[in-house]
Model the fold of this input.
Amino acid sequence: MPVFCLTTIGTIQIRIEAIEPSRDGLAGGIRRLPGEERAKVVLSVDDPAGQTRNRRATLVDIARHAGVSKSTVSLVLQSSPLVREETRERVHRAIDALGYVYNRSAANLRRAQSNVVGMVINDLGNPFFAELAVGIERVFQTAGFVPLIANSAESPIRQAEVLRSIREQGPAGFIICPARGTQPTAIDDLIRGGLPVVLAMRRVAGVRATCVAPDNRDGARKAVEHLLRLGHRRIAYFGGFADTVADGERQGGYRDALAAAGLAIDEALVISGAPTRESGMQGIDRLWAVADDVTAGLCFNDLVALGVVAGLRRQGREAGRDFAVIGFDDIAEARHASPALTTVAVDTKALGERAAQAVLGMIQGNRPMESHVGAVDLVVRESCGARLGEAM
Amino acid sequence: MPVFCLTTIGTIQIRIEAIEPSRDGLAGGIRRLPGEERAKVVLSVDDPAGQTRNRRATLVDIARHAGVSKSTVSLVLQSSPLVREETRERVHRAIDALGYVYNRSAANLRRAQSNVVGMVINDLGNPFFAELAVGIERVFQTAGFVPLIANSAESPIRQAEVLRSIREQGPAGFIICPARGTQPTAIDDLIRGGLPVVLAMRRVAGVRATCVAPDNRDGARKAVEHLLRLGHRRIAYFGGFADTVADGERQGGYRDALAAAGLAIDEALVISGAPTRESGMQGIDRLWAVADDVTAGLCFNDLVALGVVAGLRRQGREAGRDFAVIGFDDIAEARHASPALTTVAVDTKALGERAAQAVLGMIQGNRPMESHVGAVDLVVRESCGARLGEAM
DNA sequence: CATCGGCTGCGGAACGTTCCAATTTGGCCT
DNA sequence: AGGCCAAATTGGAACGTTCCGCAGCCGATG
Done:
């Protein structure tokens, strides 16, 4: 359809797109074209994005500019096969010309469900969870969802706040790494609201939700078995928060392995604290205060392990030579530390992707996926001493 | 106003809240109460959150349940002083009873502006930027804004995607740590759209936007001056991406300090690469290949510095004893590394807060804040050798 | 007794999409 | 020409808020 541009007054452009006889004569001053079978007069007024008014362009603006209806523009935006190629191009040109930005809020209002998914992470400052978040985010992004990432900073109160905030945006689903001390109702409320929820890395006792987590128990068991094979008999456990499920499981694996080897468990060697470097440094000091015959330690995670390594060094001892240290998670730093950290490798990327897939599946209406327990592997590096021949 | 609950049929509750004569006689079967001056009949049907239908409760549902109009409920939600205390309580009870969740999309549609702010970070996997993001997020969260965090992973293409995604949500403003190679138009489009934009940590050449960044040049200068004071004369620079403004500034400070000391700059000692550990490890190898008389190096950031330290160790050398290493940023790991990293401390927290305040100010209609250059401090630890007495 | 003004509360019109049903268009076959 | 079918396009009614103007009610004031 050719467009006859008539005139421009100021920033207002007046265009005639087609000509047809009006019911009561012809539109103002336009001669009937001889031999014209059928015609249509369309007068349209353009207002290129907020020049006359400071307003974002809308679907209707695009429609006017392109000389189609808003419905057609909507179809183009959803790349529906129902629109003719030529029309589609015209609409796209209009979109570029007016600098149109789609209004997701309006769409969400009309559609039942939006394209945002909530990601609530207990500790974005922890590289392990940051890596996880980045992995999950990528999956969603390529699936056309916008992840809303929020950090609960291990505070159930803050977690409740961010959950509410995100819920107000009408998300399609949630991935949550629950903060420590999360109440079951915090999660259950979401599920009862009909939202797909997947827990990542941490279960919450008393909540029936799909959970994607590493095999903590098995990993800890493997690590301790490795230490036992190296000849260690007095092995400590530097824990994280004792009230978390993850710590319970890892500590459980530690106990399993010792018990299986016929060794009694010395509760003095089980040391709890925050899952941080600082806590690891303090932990090793606390250990020496109660027992000086310990030769190895399994740590709740790599940060604690790095803390233990640092604490040892402060005392003039070297991990891997004077004391065997094993971490958990295999964060990027573990490989580069010195000595390189022996650790239980969790395939963060794979778990993150799996969690994301689980949510996507539920969003598409599949039955909730079963909880997934990811296999873990012991990565032997230097801090356990194995590389130096037989330990001590 | 007392509520007379009449009856409940299934999950439907029918309530009469007040009684008054209707225009044409009395409402179905209800006797005129003797002596009643004025009355009002309100029949309301309750549907506790999606029991009869699977639908989220809305403002109107709350209004019906509480026996007020939707306008009043809206006022309550905005904690307007225009509603009576008693009414407010009744509304709140209704909200709790129906498990109402506010619909931000609908509000955004009606209001010009939403409460989301976009945070686009170039590399969430980098602890420095993760720390920054967490700091910024906290400020927004307490100011009642919902930050949408996205990771551009240093890709301008992905950055464009996430910017569009977030823009569709109608954000009130943006904080951006631009990806490497960001085109000025990518940012300018936002600014011309009338959005408050603050750049954090990295300027973009050719963009007039408020920018909050550390004093890279001064930091590098201080670091090199420190090395000069320790007696070093052949000092390398292990850079990040040479095409970034940050690298340009840090390298500039390095050159300034050498020039001020009357030393010529040996271009072979300026080594570029990615701002990662791996790149640092390779960098030190590349350095030895071209010059074996170098005794110190300034690194683009702490990750590179840690890489250099690791690379040295692989060759049997120790940072701080055989070679002085200085990093930049002072990430958490710098303090805990071994040897502890001498580094130029950037007050990430303060810069993040400042950036957030700048955006908040602009959202509230203030004039754009001037760009802010944060002061930096050299933190002397072990890796530069100063703690071992005079270097080498 | 009318009038006024301060409190409260109400109704309805946006906001910018999507989706449905209806309509027009155009091609093809009688 | 006419009829028919598929393809393309359209108008209008939602969706759940906010905000504006208006309306009762009450006690105080003239």
The mean pLDDT of chain B is 86. Residues 68-72, 75, 82-84, 87, 106, 108-112 of chain B lie near DNA strand C (CB under 10 Å from a C1'). The radius of gyration of chain B is 31 Å.
